[in-house]
Amino acid sequence: MANPPNKPLFPHRHLLGIEGLSAQDIEILLDLAEAAVEVSRQVEKKRTTLRGRTLINLFFEASTRTQSSFELAGKRLGADVMNMSVAASSVKKGETLLDTAVTLNAMRPDIIVVRHARAGAVHLLAKKVDCAVVNAGDGAHEHPTQALLDALTIRRNKGRIEGLTVAICGDILHSRVARSNILLLSALGARPRVVGPSTLLPPGIERMGVDVFHDMRAGLEGADIVMMLRLQRERMRGGYIPSAKEYFRFFGLDEAKLKLAKPDALVMHPGPMNRGVEIDSSVADGERSLIREQVEMGVAVRIAVLEALARHLPNG
Amino acid sequence: MDESEFHVKQASASSHPSSSSIAHKPLALINARLIDPAALDEKAGGVLIVDGLIREFGSAVTLANLPAHARIIDCSGDCVAPGLIDMRAFIGEPGAEHRETIATATWAAAAGGVTTILARPDTIPPVDEPAVVDFLLRRARDTGRVRVLPSAALTSGLDGAEIAEIGLLQQAGAVAFSDGARSIRNARVLRRVMQYARDFDALVIHHAEDPDLAAEGVMNEGEFASRLGLAGTPREAEAIMLDRDIRLVNLTGARYHAALVTTALSLDIVAKAKSDGLPVTCATSINHLTLNENDIGDYRTFLKLAPPLRGEEERRALVAGLASGLIDAIVSDHNPQDVETKRLPFTEAEDGAIGLETMLSAGLRLVHSGEISLGRLIAAMTIRPAEILRLPQGRLKIGAPADIIRFDPDEPFVVDPAKLHSRCKNTPFDEARMEGKVKLTLIAGEVVYEAE
């Protein structure tokens, strides 16, 4: 698909985070993704933008939907896609990560998509390779394609992002999704707020430009979008919150709490969901849920990101 | 005690404190010295009680201007004050009914002028799930003579590792949170507990005594312990943990109450915290205010406490702290222990002393000796605990629940353990001469105790 005439190009070589992107950069990616949605809905989904190019999915941390989504995006653009899942236990930090980078670089890939359990690991790797790098999640730092797909989903359903109140609820502390979303939503003029127990909120989060709520009832009031986050199983017992039962009672999204948001509020979740912990099934599967649409937008956004970066590749 | 007699008395009083349906005549206590803890002073007058609430109080309440059908009690110059609120008592249930029951503890309380008890959560099982809170509330309703408020655990199983279900426990009726006599060793755990409690605006009550530093100690560290050949607990065991706690309060913003402070070091820490504007309060026990380590004498295990009784200088510092208002509350630290756990070598004996029934009389010693004013003593047992726990009781205020006591501050008596109502008799005031006896205790305007 050709870039529409007179539209600026995405100016970055890598996509390491939402941080550093301008509102215009984000709009470029969302517009590209919008077009990719249409292509993905046709019978003939294949294009040639990345024909002859090599895409490596380098996942140091297990992932189903993100990895398959990038794989599908790469294939729809005609790239050769290689998936490398590196068990976390076999790879230590620092030197070994760089060794891996150097080894991969020697294979002359064009784009590497990286997920790593440590914040900053993807940035470190990007410095050591010659190809384009896409951050598919680094620790509790950023997950830019998730934020982009969330934004696309919101834009398609609400017609805009600017001015919307978006309540991001749950385990903000460990969430890269939350950080990327806060940055993106702020950049596009939305009003993100975070809702959760203090134990699951990063200290100083209010200085990232969000309103902070510890009481979900207050936090949902006036929200256009309710974005629930996953609570990792190992964090449910005692360390951060007392129990899954108490968490659901006070911070789980059910019909009663959703009533406190705007009447036309929509519900999102990056998946995978813990039903009955952070979200009730009736809400997750209800008519105000955008959760399945988010997955579809995930492929479109990854196509858009790969396309945008392809323009900077040598001989691109 | 005679069991059959006990049950008769119990039955007659069991409708307290929850009943409000019965239509009562107005009740007037007249010709009294009214102790107003909000004003820290007293004046002559009376209290008029209608429908379980204080309708009027002060000098205007006299025989001349009462409702025609009012029941009148002439106090003959005795003191009348709000009922006492005790923020720290172990009441046996569930799991230690051989030591105490809600029935016996609240009987002792009523006889001692205590109208509200904050029950310690370190029972068997501990109060760490909503069902136990519910159990306590029901038992108190059915068998209690005075109000019993549950406190619930800060950490699950009181293990100091995982946050307890503070939100659900609060909804079930827990009014404060503590791990009882246990201190939370791990600062990260306490930090998260405080963060979480802050979100629910829950009061964190902590027993600050470093378990590693206190370790083998069985009494206050110092010359006297060394002479007795007993291992001591330094004052720093309390101060170090209290200091850490205050820093975590500063970090988290939690409402914090030091369950028991017993040393001048601790008072300095609390004074600093308060002057910094932190939401910090503290209590000390009636034992630490009126006894010192020398009272242990010949290895008297009834005076083995945790934290231990300190030296006379520390006791004086506590009294000064009480007089200045630095110490917010006085607790009984009621802890019934039976013969099996107390008639042992000092080192092996359990900590703890009963105190519900004698706390007012013991406190009056400080008044009689001129160390503190009666108003200050009563305030630390009524309005200050009420403010900390956010209760409507503990004050002379129009519309407040009429939990009222009448006492003669001068009536002399000798403490006879056999006559105390607690199931256990481990009083440190065994055979002590005291002045000041409770004559009448009212809960919501109803008599729950009347001296013979």
Please give a structural write-up.
The complex is a heterodimer of chains A (316) and B (452). Chain A is 37% helix and 14% strand. Chain A is α/β, with parallel strands linked by helices and 316 residues long. In chain A, strands 7-6-5-8-9 form a 5-stranded parallel β-sheet. In chain A, helix 1 crosses helix 11. Chain A starts with 22 loop residues before the first helix and ends in a 6-residue tail after the last helix. The mean pLDDT of chain A is 92. By secondary structure, chain B is α/β, with parallel strands linked by helices. Chain B has 2 domains: 90 residues, Roll (Urease, subunit C, domain 1); 335 residues, Metal-dependent hydrolases (TIM Barrel, Alpha-Beta Barrel). Chain B is 31% helix and 23% strand. In chain B, helix 9 links the parallel strand 13 and strand 14. Chains A and B meet through helix 8 of A and helix 4 and helix 5 of B.
- Counting copies of identical and different chains, the oligomeric state is heterodimer
Number of helices of chain B: 15
State the helicity of chain A in percent bands.
25-40%
Shape of chain B: globular
Top-tier CATH class of the largest domain in chain B: Alpha Beta
Reading the helices and strands of chain A in chain order gives HEHEHEHEHEHEEHEHHEHH
Number of helices in the DSSP assignment of chain A: 11
**How can the largest sheet of chain B be summarized?**
8 strands, mixed
Largest interchain contact:
A-B, 16 and 16 residues
